[in-house]
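[09:14] KT: can someone run the structure on this one? pasting the chain below
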Amino acid sequence: MINYANHSFEENEHLYGPGKRLLLFTQGCSIRCKGCVNSHLWNFGEGTDATTTEIVRLCEAEDIEGITLHGGEPLDQAEGLLEIAKLLKTKSKTVILFTGYTYKELSLKNQRALWRISDIVVSGRYDESKRNIYLQFRGSTNQKIYCHEGKYKDYKINDGETVAILRLDQKGNMTRRGFETDELTALLRELKITAIDS
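[09:31] RB: done, structure tokens below
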């Protein structure tokens, strides 16, 4: 069973990886980095429960390149996510894992297995003092990217730009994903718009 906050289908390589992907935000984080934009995902059990089969069916319902596991902290739910990753790999889908852990910190077998089966791993704590919004996948300069054997073995990281995705629903609620520049923050403040991290 997986407990997740939300999911969507995204095509934004700079933030979530190549191609159209199921972006799954897991609920719950044991790391809780200071300044994290996803602090609303820290508490465990506050999301939606889904079986591994239900998540795989979501992937099969769309023509996607793969799944991106985000959080919260995906490795806190490694057992169920490993099952999903294994099933998707048999269908030639890719897996991208965002985690605050380093490989040396992983004490559980299924955490290490999920790390190894992932095509790309974005690893390390978000460090507010090393914040840099012009990095692909990462929010701070200490975070590392590992491209494993397979489809993305020679993947080239494209630093030097920033991306923020703002969405407005029918009720006028705005959600934000990605990195906000100071100028965008000032503009939203001037327009009296509050963007909620999703």
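[09:33] KT: thanks! The chain is about 20% helix and 25% strand.
[09:34] RB: yep, looked fine to me
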